[in-house]
Amino acid sequence: MKKYLVQPDMKVKLSEWDPNDTSEFKGGKEQGQAEIEKLNHRLEELQELLFAEHRHKVLIVLQAMDTGGKDGAIRHVFEGVNPQGTRVANFKAPTAEELDHDYLWRVHRQVPAKGELVIFNRSHYEDVLVVRVHNLVPREVWETRFDQINEFEEMLAETGTTILKFYLHIDKDEQKERLQARLDDPNKHWKFRLGDLEERKLWSEYMQAYEDVLKKTSTDAAPWFIVPANHKWYRDLVISTILVNTLEGLKMKYPESAENLAGVVIE
Amino acid sequence: MKKYLVQPDMKVKLSEWDPNDTSEFKGGKEQGQAEIEKLNHRLEELQELLFAEHRHKVLIVLQAMDTGGKDGAIRHVFEGVNPQGTRVANFKAPTAEELDHDYLWRVHRQVPAKGELVIFNRSHYEDVLVVRVHNLVPREVWETRFDQINEFEEMLAETGTTILKFYLHIDKDEQKERLQARLDDPNKHWKFRLGDLEERKLWSEYMQAYEDVLKKTSTDAAPWFIVPANHKWYRDLVISTILVNTLEGLKMKYPESAENLAGVVIE
After folding, report:
1. Residue in A83, A186, A267 closest to B74 by CB
2. CA A77 from centroid of its chain's CA atoms
């Protein structure tokens, strides 16, 4: 899965990244789903270990265009994970109180504690994406944010947080199909917003903003992965694999008790 | 499962409630586990509906003696539920800031929002359990709390919260076995605390405190269920069944869009 990792300072042209790619898994969709199920079980074990060891903190950042599959990835990658010790933080349009603070304030409150796995569904990256595309702050303001974000994430990493950032990469045609599917199914109307169509018109501006994000904020401390996401099963497989491999790499162990349990008798 | 419901003002003698009971399910453990899996899938659908409808709020309170199975119940009942929209709130020993506020302050912050399912792993009931057993506040203080709690929960119910409270009922012998199992397995030492043995000595005081809680705070707005919990599969089955039935009773529907989607064309 190394091919999806964005190297620090690597120039990214998203049009050259194939959202239909499934080349890192030789089976098809069905075998892929069986593989995801296996990874789910392994993730369940690893998350229990993370919780028990109470040492590492794990932060997953998910970013994508509308319909890119953030919600679906959360549902499928984290299926079976114990809700105790796992938390999803949603970053919607900021409240008045949040706007009265710096843009990292509400984000900092939601970072994982020891033993915790936290998924950011959207994140502080919106402050260099939607904020930039809609000119909500001047260029000189959002431009300073890349360094601020890198430094913030570096601090989190230095204080025990393992950070993985995934950009779920779909193309504009795929988005059209997915929006149409929502429109055609009354049970999915609640997910459909007319505003999404306005955002869709800004597709190329968003791609440019994402390219800058990927180039400027993929660091050793907090790397970005570009996940081919037109095929949902492959998207989930890539995320699961990278996550499981990363957690395996932490070499976690069940901790000994801080107390001396030798000779304890339960009456 | 009606037999496990505590009627308002019903006098409860826990020694008369059989923690080994499995009478409401005619199959044994294996069939029971298959049934739990079915309920898990149904719960997954219902939780998605809860999230989509964005109308009801659901609060599950879990209380039990040490090793009573709160963590296990969370793991097994909520397996497969989307972490988006589901949250576990743990109430540990209060912090200095929390102690500077009334005892419901930290609890109120954690109640579910619209569309959310929140599980309280321990709760404000510790303020009439551990606090009472250890004389952390005078009797006249904790005695006033029963009414305060009922009124607080009634307000939550009146403002759209569905509340289910489960007391996981094990006996003292079962606790001994479970503590011993933790002691015998180095991978479980992290769960073992010498302090648990001190608490165990206060078993009968805790039973008395629980009996008062169950009698005084089981209301129509927020009923208590006494779950036989010596058999883990049965414990999970009882909780799943009551939860699924309750959610079914909400008659939730996928909402229509607030916007007029007729004639929308995606370009």
Report:
1. A83
2. 11
> Domain limits at B242?
2-248
CB contact under 8 A, B82 and A90: no
Among chain B residues, the shortest Cα distance to A116 is held by: B88
Task: Say whether B101 sits in a helix, a strand or coil.
Answer: coil
| A-to-B residue pairs, Cβ atoms closer than 8 angstroms | 117
Whether B254 maps to a domain, the answer reads no
User: For A20-138, where are the alpha helices, taking DSSP H only?
Assistant: 29-53, 70-77, 96-99, 105-108, 130-133
SS (H, E, C) B211-249: HHHHHHHCCCCCCEEEEECCCHHHHHHHHHHHHHHHHHH
The alpha-carbon gap from B103 to the nearest alpha carbon of chain A, in Å, equals 23
Number of helices (H), then strands (E), belonging to chain B: the values are 10, 5
CB contact under 8 A, A254 and B81: no
From B6's Cα to the closest Cα of chain A, the distance in A is 27
* Residue A154 located in a structural domain: yes
> How many other CB atoms are found less than 10 A from the CB of residue A179?
21
CATH number, residue B197: 3.40.50.300
Give contacts of A121 with chain B, Cβ < 8 Å: 84
**C-alpha to C-alpha distances, B134 to A267, B4, B68, B174, nearest whole angstrom:** 20, 29, 20, 23
Q: How far, CA to CA in Å, does B129 sit from each of A190, B91, B134?
A: 43, 13, 8
Q: Say if A253 falls within a structural domain.
A: no
Note whether residue B259 is domain-resident.
no
User: Closest Cα of chain B to A3: distance in Å?
Assistant: 29
Crossing angle (nearest 10°) for helices A29-53 and A232-249: 30
Structure tokens at B202: 């206060």
Helices A139-158 and A203-217, packing angle to 10 deg: 40
Residue in chain B nearest A53 by alpha carbon: B190
Q: Between chains, do A197 and B88 touch, taking CB under 8 Å as contact?
A: no
Q: List the pLDDT tens digit at each of the 267 positions of chain B.
A: 899 999 999 999 999 999 999 999 999 999 999 999 999 999 999 999 999 999 999 999 999 999 999 999 999 999 889 999 999 999 999 999 999 999 999 999 999 999 999 999 999 999 999 999 999 999 999 999 999 999 999 999 999 999 999 999 999 999 999 999 999 999 999 999 999 999 999 999 999 999 999 999 999 999 999 999 999 999 999 999 999 999 999 999 999 988 999 899 999
Global confidence as pTM? 0.93
Domain tally for chain A? Answer: 1
Q: Are the beta carbons of A83 and B80 separated by less than 8 Å?
A: no
> Which chain A residue's Cα is nearest to B181?
A266
DSSP A174-229: HHHHHHHHHHH-GGGGGG--HHHHHHHTTHHHHHHHHHHHHHHH--SSS-EEEEE-
What does the DSSP 8-state code read for residue B181?
H
